[in-house]
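REQUEST FORM: STRUCTURE PREDICTION
Request ID: SP-0412
Submitted by: Lab K.M.
Chain count: 1
Length (residues): 282
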Amino acid sequence: MGNWRPFLARNALGLVGLSILALAVAGALAAPHIAPYSPTSISLMARMKPPAWIDGGSFAHPLGTDNLGRDILSRVIYGSRISLAVGFAAVLLGALIGSTVGILAGYFGGWVDSGLSFLIDVQLSFPFTLLAIFLLATFGGGFWPVVLVLALATWVNYARVVRGKVMSVKGQDYVHAAHTVGVPTLRILTSHILPNTVSPIIVVASFSMAQAILTEAALSFLGVGVDGSNPSWGTMLNDGRSYLQSAWWLTAMPGIAIALTVLGGNLCGDWLQDRLDPRSAR
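STATUS: Completed
RESULT:
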């Protein structure tokens, strides 16, 4: 048992973050089996029931019901599927685009680096929230439009980090040796450059996941996010904003779910940064 204590002391917050994310993912995957009701099942006789620990509440609806009598607990559980799916998809797409741009800019340098760096600066110059609202209001919301917009917001984070890492790696002797003996450029990039960028990509992805979930909730709250017919944490916030004074649980429960998931992502990001970046070791 003594051997575990130093490990737990060094990784306590990381384990908390991983546990939160694992619980959220497990709940999303098992939603049809653990949710007590259908997330879209309406019962006007049970509308606006408070949580079970408040007078008038019932353990039949532990977190209460909304204005249409839909079970809040079931909607929070099912809402995690949309929110997490949007976050994962946005992270993967943003990482693919940003890492590709960063590798090309860092390895080739010259006009390629200048052009791609200018593109990054242009992206950073736009206020993202306003740009996202404009794009989604113009072309319509939905799962994939939101994913594309979120990827548009996060790819620059990968590009900047990967570009700096590649610029330091390409000066190593083994890269020069591979270039000297005639190894094709594509193989150098995939076999020597890309593996050395995996650690910073993972760190950025962990933070971007939390950012994507939070941004999706904000966009859905503003009414330009995913389709409201399928519950997500953001659409639940939007549905409950008219009842903040009379039925606070409509927004509090999805808000708590968002806060905990974002906290888990940030804790994992901090832990991964400490583990994978020797310069940040304490």
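NOTES: Residues 132 and 149 are 6 Å apart (CA to CA).
Reviewed by: T.R.
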